[in-house]
Amino acid sequence: MKTDELIHLLATDDQPVQPAAIEQRFAIASAVGIAGAGVLMLTLFGLRPDLLATVALPMFWGKLVFAAALAAAGLALLRRMARPGMALGHTALWLAVPPLVLWAMALWTLSQVPAAERVPLILGSTWRTCPLNIAALSVPAFVAGFWALKGAAPTRLAWAGAGAGLLAGALGALVYALHCPEMATPFLAVWYVAGMAIPTALGAVLGPRLLRW
């Protein structure tokens, strides 16, 4: 086959790509991730029994804002990673804002209590299970995030996989907050972040293997 004929054959079914195609895929992945995490949470853990009373507490909304802000920053970064050669800009810096704010609040809280009370504030009553629970709830969003990336053209595969894992972890933490009884910022600063770090690290490992094109 001649080169000109091959080019003509490849261009026969050429169709323009929608400008927001990547954003649509990530919107679908996020919706599927939240819905899947919600089903898993209700099946495995259930809502906390005092949820209606808890919604009046500022720290309950603080947990949701932290996870939602990290998910939004991760999504903004991920949509750039999905496009080859697209600069990250200042979006990477926004990822650092939610954990830095939370860590600052945690340090301030610890500084206000006697030394004997600091470890209980960090450990809470669910430190053994919290990170694993968040990681478990992140599975639907993790799978959906990789599906969204497979329809794009990422070139930094490890970073793209880590971004998908971070988004999944943040969405998992967002849903897990509806079950989690913990409210102390030192606990959240350690164990919520640890729970999000698990899918992030897994995504970095699997990215080069699953996102290659």
TrEMBL record:
InterPro entries: NrsF (IPR009495). It comes from Acidovorax benzenivorans. Keywords: Membrane, Transmembrane, Transmembrane helix. The chain crosses the membrane at residues 26-47, 59-79, 91-111, 131-149, 156-178, 190-211. This is DUF1109 domain-containing protein. The keyword Transmembrane applies. It comes from the Bacteria. Pfam families: NrsF. The keyword Transmembrane applies.
